[in-house]
Structure formats: structure tokens, C-alpha cells
Amino acid sequence: xxxxxxxxxxxxxxxxxxxxxxxxxxxxxxxxxxxxxxxxxxxxxxxxxxxxxxxxxxxxxxxxxxxxxxxxxxxxxxxxxxxxxxxxxxxxxxxxxxxxxxxxxxxxxxxxxxxxxxxxxxxxxxxxxxxxxxxxxxxxxxxxxxxxxxxxxxxxxxxxxxxxxxxxxxxxxxxxxxxxxxxxxxxxxxxxxxxxxxxxxxxxxxxxxxxxxxxxxxxxxxxxxxxxxxxxxxxxxxxxxxxxxxxxxxxxxxxxxxxxxxxxxxxxxxxxxxxxxxxxxxxxxxxxxxxxxxxxxxxxxxxxxxxxxxxxxxxxxxxxxxxxxxxxxxxxxxxxxxxxxxxxxxxxxxxxxxxxxxxxx
Length: 361
Description:
Elements: E1 7-11, H1 16-24, E2 28-33, H2 38-43, E3 46-49, H3 56-66, E4 71-74, H4 92-99, H5 101-110, E5 126-130, E6 140-142, H6 145-154, E7 160-163, E8 169-178, E9 182-192, E10 202-207, H7 214-227, E11 231-240, E12 244-250, H8 257-264, H9 268-276, E13 290-297, E14 302-303, E15 315-316, E16 324-325, E17 330-338, H10 341-359
Parallel strand pairs: 1-2, 1-4, 2-3
Antiparallel strand pairs: 5-6, 5-7, 8-9, 8-11, 9-10, 10-13, 11-12, 13-17, 14-16, 15-17
């Protein structure tokens, strides 16, 4: 399909999930992406890889000079970039407060939504997290000043905040907003890395998420999404304990796109564009089954010699043969689906077992 309004630039640290959704919706995607994996090339007209997020603006400019791009959408890391191409999503002047976790906590309080309260220096244990940034990979529970100082040294004086530690299941609600109204379309359980280096780093999702307090979580999410002024696809993260604790706002496409589309048989890119044009779903989506995605990380420095594309569509974010990975780097995403959560997880584990043999060849 071609024509005016169909050429879409997707920019951000990782874009494959959004590019693939746009491709399925009939658009012509272009990408500026950190990874530029094999499957990104299957769905894009052109792509540019960058190493550091500081390179994003210049890479976007180069892409726009190469091609007559009609519009742009962003993923994590690109929320505040500017371009001469019309942006479909939240304007950068609106998004700034939502990217600051300290400001977001105050926002939740203003709207009567439970959020972990801040704690003072010296009041341990505490959850320490950077004020800005996505993925949760730098979040730590610290128990003394020495652990705080080690974190500050590791991340080079990154501004941070301290919060009360709350217990529960990490979850999220995916919403669509036109800037004034919002509807929740999916609930997701988040899978964390649970490793020594990044215990709270995002490593996948299960969709849908079922919990006795889902009705409260959805209500809080819709209230947040409607009030924050963000437009399009918006994710609200929670910890589901004795109450839904609102954690942060993701004012752009989330990493749960794959499992949402699988579980609900929908197209998130088209939903996002419709919301940006003031069109929101009027009826709840029907669950078709459960879907799970898990990211596999390198357990040591390694070079991938095998071409994993034979496992598609069981996997995504497929690296090129010969790619080098440092210990802890993401290698590939693996999926599982099923009639129940247990069925989906069982298939996921079967798929992971098969794929790991080839990763370590």
C-alpha cells in the first residue's frame, strides 16, 4: 500500500514491535533503531541504526532527507525528540512531567491514586530509581548508605529518588487517550529479570493479567491517562499488592504491544493513530487467549553463530548471525500462547529450551 499519509517513521531505542504493527495495518514503515535486527528489515522500507540516544535527532533528520516521510511515532528513548515530520502522539512539552518519576508520583497523589510514598535519605530499606529512564534496569532496593553510594558511583551521579518498598505483582494497563478521554484496552503482567545486575529490569509480559483488584487498577489507569494530557497509546505501571500501587506512566508505545495483539487479536498501531485523531474504542476487546513474551539475555560474553530466523514466528527481535553480545545483553524475544496462562507459559518454556540449544552452539 502506498500513498499520502502511509509512510511512517518509527523512532526509538527498540522499534520492531511498533514497526511490525504498522506494517500489518497497511503502512510503509521506516525505522531509526538501536538494534536493527533481522526482522526489523522484513517490515521496513529503510532503517538507520544508532549506538547512543544522543544520535537520534541526526539519524531522524537523515531519514527524513532520504524519504518523503508523512508522520512519525516514537518508542522509548525518543519521547522528546523533535522533527519536521508531524508527530502522532504526545507533544514534547506535555510529556516532560510524565517522564520524571518524582513529578509523576506527585501527579498520582493529586488525583487520589495510591503510589509508593517518598522516603528520606537514611530511611532504609528503600527503592532507589533514576528520576528518568525506562525499563527498570537501574532500579534497586538499597539497605544502607554504602549501597546508595555504590549505585551513585555506578551510574555517574544520575538524579534519583527514594521510595517506600511495596510488595506485589508487577503489572500494567495499556490505555488509549485522545488527550481528554481514555479507555483501558488491556491488562498485562510484567516479567522481571530477577537477576543480581538488574532485578527489576523488564524482561517480558503476560497478557491478559487477572487479579481480584483489576477493577481498581483499570479505574486508576483510565483516570491517569485521561488527566495527564498524553495522546495515543499510554501505559500505566502498577505493583498489585493490597492495593494497586501506581508506579509510573509510559507516554508512548509500550513493550507489551506483541502480547496485547496476540491475546486480543487487535492492531495497536491503528488504535494509536485512531486515538490521536480522537477516535477511541467504544466496546471492550474480547480476549482470544493468553500470550507471553520473554526476553533472553546473554549469561556470558558470546558471539551468536546460528541463524535463529528458522524459529520465526515463535521468536522476534532476531539477531543477525555473527552478532556479539556482552553478558547481560538482550539476545532475542520468545513467545508462548495458549488457552490459559499456564498453557502459554508451558509453550514458552518449551520454545526457550529448544532455542537455547542453538544460541549456545
